[in-house]
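Technical note accompanying the year-one report. For the benefit of new consortium partners, we illustrate the data format agreed upon in the data management plan: each record pairs a sequence with a structure-token string. No post-processing was applied to the example shown here.
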Amino acid sequence: MTAIRIDGNVLAEKVRGRIAADVAALKARGITPGLAVVLVGEDPASQVYVRNKVKACHDAGLHS
């Protein structure tokens, strides 16, 4: 049995591309999908996580 190397960055870009295409198709039908986040507390790691999710949404065309 041989190992198969998976390039996570390439895979992630493919997934993000498909999501962006799906979002564009929904927007063409008048639907704007989005993500809402409720952040409880002031944990810096959580704030970074949420900030990264907001950026990912923006990149994919989602409302956040």
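Partners are asked to follow this layout when depositing records. The longest helix spans residues 8-28.
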